[in-house]
Amino acid sequence: MTIDLGVLISGRGSNLGAILDAVAAGSLDARVRVVISNKAGAGGLEIARAAGVPTVVIPHGAHPDRASFDAALVAALREAGATCVVLAGFMRLVTPVLLDAFPYRVVNIHPSLLPAFPGVDAQAQALAYGARITGCTVHLVDAGTDTGPVLAQAAVPVLEGDDRDALAARILAREHELLVLALGWLAQGLVEIEAGAAGKRPIVRVRGAATALGIEAPR
Ligand code: GRF
Question: Which of 152, 159, 146, 189 is nearest to 174 (CA)?
């Protein structure tokens, strides 16, 4: 089943580019209905335009609070026909206004193996900590910061002599694969979510797929 995506960005948009490339190549059964940026100068807007995808700029500063900003996002996403929202380098915390409009259908890509190194500049956090292995995580978004149920992860080594940019580039290559993979599972209806018992996390099952990149799917 084709999935209708709304992609939220704030910057460069390389993950958006990976999604659009996969759609164009026929390896991801999705339509990108709209790309929304909170920043008018985001490079990803050009990537969207070049692919013929409608773009909307909604500056967060034009809204008095997060909830009203999110309400504007929801209106634009609904108008475009999006049923699944991808946070692809979207540097704003989202509120229940967005999450409740797309239950279990807001997806984030984060450049660490969560729950390690949530929040900003996870790559620098991993280096500063002295981690030997880090990676990236695709997860469903909940009300916390990078705390939602995990869909997929990929491990990436930290190499001797890495600086922040070298490590970020190695992780980014994996992000592009992992995000497309996880969106494909959603498009194929392979993701089952069971609400957690009181105080517990929801349980995510992905039918027939390995949820860590580089590990073979069970047969
Ligand atoms: C990526 O590292 C992503 O994991 C993080 O922000 C960065 C966005 O990069 N959330 P891009 O805009 O997709 O190139």
Answer: 152
| Cα distance between the two ends of the chain | 23
Q: Is 158 in the pocket of ligand 1 (CB under 6 A)?
A: no
97 burial via Cβ count (<10 Å: 0-12, 13-18, 19+):
middle
For the question of residue 176 being annotated catalytic, the response is no
pLDDT tens per residue, range 160-180: 999 999 999 999 999 999 999
> Which atom of ligand 1 sits closest to the CA of residue 43?
12
- In what side-by-side order are the strands of the sheet with 150-157? 55-57, 30-37, 3-9, 84-87, 106-110, 133-140, 150-157
Q: In this structure, is the dihedral angle defined by the CA atoms of residues 9, 153, 174 and 117, taken in order, positive or negative? A: positive
Q: Tell me, what's the pLDDT at 219?
A: 57
Dump pLDDT digits (tens) for 180-218. Answer: 999 999 999 999 999 888 989 999 999 988 888 887 766
| Number of neighbouring beta carbons within 10 Å of residue 207 | 10
Query: Beta-carbon neighbour count of residue 176 at 10 Å?
Result: 18
